[in-house]
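[job 0412] stage=fold_complex status=start
inputs:
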Amino acid sequence: MKRSITLIFFACCLLISPFASRAQEVTVTGKVTEKANGQPLPGVTVTVQGTSKATSTDAAGRYAITAAPGAKLEFRQLGMKPQIITVSGTTLDVSLTGDETSLNEIVVIGYGTQKKSVVTGAISSVKASDLENMPVTRIEQSLQGRTAGLTITGASGQPGSGATLRIRGTTTIGNSDALFIVDGVQVDGGIDYLSQSDIESIEVLKDAASASIYGARGGNGVVLVTTKKGKDTDGKIRVNYNGFVGTQAPDHKLKLLNAAQYATLYNEAAVAGSKAANPATAIRFPDPAALGEGTDWQSEVFNNSALWHNQELSFQGGSARSTYFSSLGYFDQEGIVASKNSRYKRFTARFNSQHKITDAITFGNNIGYTRINSIGVATNDEYGSPLVRAINMDPITPAVERDPAKFNAPPYSNFPVVRNSEGFPYGISPYAQSEILNPLGALAVAQGNNWSDKIVANLFLEVEPLKGLKLRSSGGVDLAFWGDQSFRPVFYLSPTTELKLNAYTRNMNRGLFWTQENTATYSGTIGDHHFQVLAGMSAQKNKGENLGGLKEGIPVNNLKDASLQFPVARLDNNFYGGEYLSTLSSLFGRVTYDFKERYLFTGVIRRDGSSRFGPNNKYGYFPSVSLGWVASKEAFFPENKVISLLKFRGSYGVTGNDRIGDFRYLSTVSGGRNYSVGTGLLPVLVNGVSPNALSNPDLKWEETTSTNIGLDAVLFNTFTFTADVFTKKTTDMLLDVRVPLYVGNNGPIGNIATLTNKGIEFEMGYSKTVGEVSFKANANATFIKNRIDFLGEDKEFLTGARITPQQLELTRTAVGHAIGSFYGYRSEGLFQNTADVANYKNAAGNPIQPDAKPGDIRFADLNGDGKINDADREFIGDPTPDFSYGLTLSAAWKGFDFLIFGQGVAGNQIFNGLRRFDLPSSNYTTEALGRWTGEGSTNSFPRLTTDDANQNFGRVSKMFIENGDYFRIKTVQLGYTIPKLMSKKAGLDKVRIYAMANNLLTLTRYNGYDPEIGGGSFGIDRGYYPQARTFFIGLNLGF
Amino acid sequence: MTFNKIKYAIAIVVIMQAGTSCKKDFLEVAPRGTALEGNFYKTDGEVYQGLIATYDVMQWGNSGGYTMKMPLLSAASDDCYAGGSSPSDQPNWVAFDNFKMDSRVGPQVGLWSKNFTGVYRANILLAKMELNTSLTPAFKTRVAAEAKFLRAYFYFDLVRFFGRVPLITKMLETSELYTQKQVDPALVYTQIEKDLREAFSALPASVAATEKGRISQGAAKALLGKVLLYSNENAKMTEAASLLKDVNSNYGYQLLPNFGDIFDPKNKFSAESILEIPHSNNAAWGDWGFINGGEGNVAPQFIGADSYSGPLYSNGWGFCPVTESLVDFMKNDPRFAFTIIDGKDLKSQGATYTARYQNTDYFIKKYAPLAAVRATSGTAELNWPINEIEIRLADTYLMEAEALVRAGGDQGRAQTLLDLVRARVGLTSVPATIDNIYNERRLELATEGHRFFDLVRTKKAAAALTGFAVGKSEHLPIPQDEIDLTKGGITQNPGYN
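[job 0412] stage=fold_complex status=done
writing structure:
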């Protein structure tokens, strides 16, 4: 009986079900694309409103769902404006538009992605559209001014040169470089190998809550770079071409003295400094006016039309199973200084692809290869850079000596002087001293180049054995080969700079950095509770070696013919090499949870073990927690038209900095502790060896603990606002440990010092479309204060930079001050007359500056001891900006698009060290024409004298410190896209032409070439290679 | 899930396991191409280099200020003044000369640092050798003995200069770096004696000419004899006498017939020399910032007459002018001419020089900068190839005589030893009383760096030295940084607070 009822029931079902569906519903199929580019949109959720029926689009954007005619289909995807369409047939194609103000975009976080609306950490994101067509040599430069919390300062304007990138301030007195992860692979040698059009997005993990998933490497912040992936194009190949060509020139030249002015001031200084009975005998140039303009050295080294071009070609496409993205790029930039010696060429190739082996198994790869060939000059160096030579060279000496009476006489006739292509010798100055010599001659003998071949590849396999569970295994390598060569022919440039035996040096390096990672991620939903659990393990090894050699006296006279293969005497041979190795082994986990996307929680923990840490601290634990509350999703939050989103975030976490060098915990031994053994006047010297310092088995990472409180808001649906307040405290920074002398050896390196960064940052966005005009604005601002808290029991400061051959102390890293603050004398105007000098006296009635004369600088006697010495110095400036900001405005109307982007800093100072004041023969800027020449003439520029007994120019003082604030119109771009109807006729999907200007205008009070001075001499202008002003035209094609 | 999926899932898990398998030793990597404390001292050759580095410290004269013992101790004694260009030339020497040292002024930093560096290098050598079974046994025995000798040598200077010092005979653990405490000098003496007793049996009776500069058994016994004498315990005098007798009788040492030959730089490691510290100019050194990196003796440069121009000598810096007291004391002694340069004689030979601070026109002759040996490469001032003789036979004769008298031992032998020293320079016998022996020490060993400690150990310093405060001036102050770094764990010597 029971059985027959079941049968009947089953039969009924069979009969009724198809019948019922045939009667009421139809199967609707279609394709969902993105309106902006026509690309298919996979993963769009399609639901029948009022039912539980739902599906999602496949990789080609296609879907199929059954619905009754008249039912409403809802299409939803993160980052897109949802659409609701009434079913009226069996096919329904939909195109979705980007939801630009929403926080629904996807953000890449370490080992995964997250919806921006549920992010609880402080993460800034830059998308491909913000980067496209921006002319930068290196990707990191494109982040400048784009996001809050990031300070980027170009290391120089030389093509290919890096930038000083600091995420939320300088985190350590050691290595503050951020961690770069490209498609999951750590890349340490700089990300200049990436071609711009290959980038999909860049995320900057700023607080510990987001960076702690990178544990001991996350302390300086993390930059995640994701390259482009292919999209399902139904098998069609999409080709894109981007190219631009530009011409670069220096923003401005300095106003230097011409030959006549130089001679006048030279005479004046010589007479003033003369000790002779008749000082007039010190006059060197009896008729300065006759010397006229003389040589403009700046024009000799600058190139006003340096070329820059960039070509990028990409192919992408695929099917539901496989997608690919391939690209080729070529980049060539000449420098504006000494273009022949300053150039950067780069070839890039990329192949990214993903394949679905089965529905549950995905395999993919991201492979990039780059070849770079470059040549460079010294960029911020008071000794040998072309600019410092151009600035300081006397304008009397000709660039090229064409006067036979001169070039047939010494020194031209009796030394191997350097000649130009016409055979005339470069002028040799009888006045200039030391390293200051004819820059053209010096450039001609500086022959050499650098090259690198780099492959960064990542392969992964992802399996989804159960719904919601993803197992992923990935392996990545960064394999690089790089080297350089230089040749110096026999030359005579000046009495102090000559080479009697030519020298050829060649270095080869190989580095391999591999990473292997396995992760398991489970995402689930229980009612309104959404959670994701991640667990993973990672191992990586970084190893490399170098080999180099030098041969002197090889039988050639130029780089092209130079080879290490030439046999030379053994003494003129030198070779050397080195190697490095480090390993990292890690476990990590993360839990993210939200309730109705209203209450948010993320917890992270990572354990890192590193070969760099001492045996007593082999493993470090780096936890973080972060919480979020989306107030606007609360039931009690009033319905309103003003605030569409209001979210509060808070986080706390610990990260580390493992950039502490390899094997520093070990004690190395060195020789040279010699002793004479044997008899007689010449016993045998035996090499003695002993440890250099104690080992430190406790040595570990530097640790950064940070707290972040943030707010995200969307107002009027058009205006986004984000604010964050943070504190980062870095402890355990490495310093030499001082041990008692009874220990008998130097102390080890230890985890000692402490510093704090505090800051506030804002990001704002606005977008509005009125009729056919769409308008967008983005702005960001960051305030940061950096302060040293502790440098060890025995230290109040560390000396940082020094300047000139006298090695004058210029910066100090001192407790209570920012890293690398300027330290020097306080100049208080000039003594106007002898009474001024005499009246500046101490308690004993003696002059405080006994060597001073009218026109000399009055220095403040800060400690009141009645004399001026080292103890009268104070902090006179800080090279790190307190405030940095960026602003982007863009607009589009019909086919036209316009963009203007500016960026600036404030609150920093620059040390202007352009003039070699230790050399009396150095040229001056025209500022020196306003020097002190008599009572009341000026109170700022001191008198000129060669003896400088008062050390006006021989002391680091406030006189050399200048305001470093600037605002720069970084990029202005105007583009025009030809209407699709027209381009279609030519078989093209997209044709856009554009014109662009880079560094169009810089507003600053700084007197040097460029106020943006990054790199090793941060904020110190030793003859900084300025950034160029460039004008470009470009073309984008797509078909 | 299909069968295929399961297969792939298993594959993934296997890959994941592969990742973990190398976990532990994955982090245990060692640097290559770098010699480390941990992997050095493995072979005979490496251990020998470690030994040489320990010997090296003996010849240091500049480890935180100039500290050449011979001229410095002469300046501290009544043989010489400090001198130099002015009192501010070497304030540390002037302060030692007139006993106005404090925790920051005086030669303490250099001497403390030098000798503890020596102790450290000896300690690490001993510690590393102890665990090493692959060394040639005979080599290991000898090097261990030398290391112990050197440790004793450095501690003997430390205990004499500073009294209470930390006694460190092993490698310090990280946790122990700041926690060392000073110990009673008697404990230091006990350790020195122990080291020397363990050393001398394993040292060679004689050292080949090609190995001169390394320690012999005679030197170790002589030093132990000297140490026992300095202990000032009468109970130890008999052993001191017998050790010194052994040195004086059984090792072939001989008094040179001509007193003047002893300090002729050509006579390195002469028959009279027992403990000699070599110096040479073959490092051709020129680094003023790291004088210890060279092998030269800076002392001759210090004591030479300033801006000297004339025959025989080279110019010096005018330190350690000889006191009128010593001139007076020696004026009728035949050794005067070999001990003191009389400025009047120089001038009569047509030489000129500049009088400097505390000039007496008398200069030390025993280590004078002879033009004939002046270095021709490197910086000559730093490369004087003039050895320091720390113990010589006349000294051990007098020490044995002293020990015999103080122990009430063989007075006849004491007399013979004293007579031998005097007879060499043509002087007749005087009774071997303790005072006569002390007088003879001053005459025979003047300006060789013995006088100051002789005065201190015989408690005659206060009478002989202006400014000497009993209970204080016997020792140097402890370097202030040492007290600060240990947060007071190391305490200042009495009288210097």
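[job 0412] summary: Strands of chain B lie at 165-166, 182-183, 273-277, 306-309, 340-342, 352-354, 362-364, 388-392.
[job 0412] exit 0
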